[in-house]
Amino acid sequence: MTAWRILAAPMALFCSLLTSASALADHGMAHPWQLGLQAPVTPVAEQLNDFHNMLLVIITVIAVFVTLLLIYVMVKFNAKANPTPRTTTHNTLLEVLWTAIPILILVVIAIPSFKLLYYADSTKDAEMTIKAIGHQWYWSYEYPDNGDFTFDASMLGDDELEPGQPRLLATDESVVIPVNTNIRLLIAASDVIHAWAIPAFGVKLDGVPGRLNETWVRVEKEGTYYGQCSELCGTGHGFMPIQVKVVSKEAFKAWVEKAKVEYASSNGKADVKLADAGAQSTQNGAAQ
Ligand SMILES: [Cu+2]
Fold this sequence. Notes:
There is one protein chain. The chain is an alpha+beta fold. The chain has a domain at 128-265: Cupredoxins -  blue copper proteins (Immunoglobulin-like). The chain contains five helices and ten strands. The protein has helices at residues 2-24, 43-76, 92-121, 249-262, 269-287; strands at residues 128-135, 138-143, 149-153, 175-178, 183-189, 194-198, 203-207, 213-217, 223-229, 242-247. A five-stranded mixed beta sheet has the order 3-2-1-5-8, with no helix packed on it. Strands 4-10-9-6-7 form a five-stranded mixed beta sheet, with helices on one face. Strand 2 (138-143) and strand 3 (149-153) form a beta hairpin. Copper (II) ion is lined by residues 134, 194, 229, 231, 233, 237, 240.
């Protein structure tokens, strides 16, 4: 009885941790004592999760096999148990096996890996496009086929956080996207290499200046999801988080109408004018 109790206590703790983990997983962010990856909400993230679980099985079998083999060798072939060692140095069958089996294991891993890589690459039937541009140190977003507006999203400081908003993850403006919609994501950068990453979406893609990288998402669950820049981009690298709100298609349409007005004044035009003026004066300066 006592032995069972000793075993049951950590099991109960583990189970309660698992339940609280799955309850918290709905928040679209990492949390203390999380086990496994964040709950996947896109087809790509689901497949990534399955692939990760498959690798976990393979790696566990290999680790257990090698450990058992080591223990067997240590017990059977130590100097005490085996005072006169054999002088055999080659075994053709064994050598072929320990070359072929690892190759087979790598092939078994490579096939689903490449499939997944191409699946995450792009979607043929995108219903809309969003462009994310990394800057030192914030993200700006463009909605070219939904109002054609632009806005910046910067991290909220500790004194700006409202109750429930996570520190270092919440931003002043959210990327709003509709649920169950194939969205083409174009990712670029204006200064150095950044990376747009949301673990729950299974997306992590570099934003490279002068290059347009593409991926896609189809989020199947409404909610708020968080991510961070995942390419070391300078001193503010840890302070350019990503906050995505996934809403119903109707709510998205309503938000677009509101956003068109809200972001009209800062539609990038003022910035563009300034940037143009800057570029012109630089050109003039160069010409002189
Ligand atoms: Cu960055």
